[in-house]
Amino acid sequence: MKTIGLIGGMSWESSLEYYRTINKEMNARLGGLHSAECLLYSVDFEGIEGLQSAGQWQEAGEQLSRVAQKLEQAGADFVVICTNTMHKVVGQIEEKITIPVLHIADTTAAAISGRNLKKVGLLGTRYTMEQDFYTSRIESHGIGVLVPPGEQRGEINRIIFEELVAGELLQSSRETFQQAIRDLMAEGAEGIILGCTEIGLLIKPEDAEVPVFDTAEIHAVAAVDLALDNG
């Protein structure tokens, strides 16, 4: 079994789900009292979010690169960044370590391709929806990506940062997401990427009429796949 290096804390609410999913999945596959061999470095999200807001991505990338280096030095065989947005700096991180980074967009695209879908809607932070670091990675797998219009993107971003990262799950916000999903479906979306690792806390498969792809769950299960891959 390989040792998983988790960069968490962005937010700790979703990092908790990563830890839970990885260990439940590992136990389901191996049985007995098995759990995952993993290292979790949980950052202080206040500082990272401040750098995001200020557009200081280089500094944010440097901070997470130092974390990744510590995980490698501690014995991690590969790194899992437990957030979608900070994959914007994955290139910086990869340059500073010799072990691989399991990219969340690649694992999500594989899940979408497994359902034979060609066009999906993307919900996430404003950074993830509006910048191309994420959509281009999904599109490189031959999958079209749609995002909500500006006003909806702003409200989705607000809900994530003001509610979901604090574990606040409101029915009114669920309805906001459901409306965004219906609107994306009307534009031709055959499925929906929950492209922020907290959204899966609020939106479940039964909340949509098309498949939803919970990136935190997909990424965590893929980490178990890689940890048990002896190749």
Structure description:
With 231 residues, the chain is of the alpha/beta class. Helix content is 53%, strand content 12%. The protein contains eleven helices and seven strands. The protein has helices at residues 12-30, 45-53, 57-74, 90-96, 104-114, 126-130, 132-139, 150-162, 171-186, 199-202, 215-227; strands at residues 4-8, 38-42, 78-81, 119-123, 144-146, 192-194, 212-214. The strands form two sheets. Strands 5-4-6-7 form a four-stranded parallel sheet, with helices on both faces. A three-stranded parallel sheet has the order 2-1-3, sandwiched between helices. Strand 1, helix 1 (12-30) and strand 2 (38-42) form a beta-alpha-beta unit. Helix 3 (57-74) crosses helix 4 (90-96). The mean pLDDT is 95.
Features:
231 residues; 3-stranded parallel β-sheet; 12% strand; 4-stranded parallel β-sheet; alpha/beta
Task: Tell me the layout of helices and strands.
Elements: E1 4-8, H1 12-30, E2 38-42, H2 45-53, H3 57-74, E3 78-81, H4 90-96, H5 104-114, E4 119-123, H6 126-130, H7 132-139, E5 144-146, H8 150-162, H9 171-186, E6 192-194, H10 199-202, E7 212-214, H11 215-227
Parallel strand pairs: 1-2, 1-3, 4-5, 4-6, 6-7
Helix pairs in contact: 1-11, 3-4, 5-7, 5-11, 8-9
| First-residue to last-residue Cα separation | 11 Å
Determine the fraction of residues in helical runs and give it as a percent range: 40-55%
Number of strands: 7
What ranges have pLDDT less than 50 throughout 5 or more consecutive residues?
Answer: none
User: Major β-sheet, in short?
Assistant: 4 strands, parallel
Chain-averaged pLDDT: 95
Indicate the proportion of strand residues.
Answer: 5-15%
Radius of gyration: 17 Å
Structural class by secondary-structure content: alpha/beta
**Main sheet: strand order:** 5-4-6-7
Number of helices: 11
| Element-by-element helix/strand order | EHEHHEHHEHHEHHEHEH
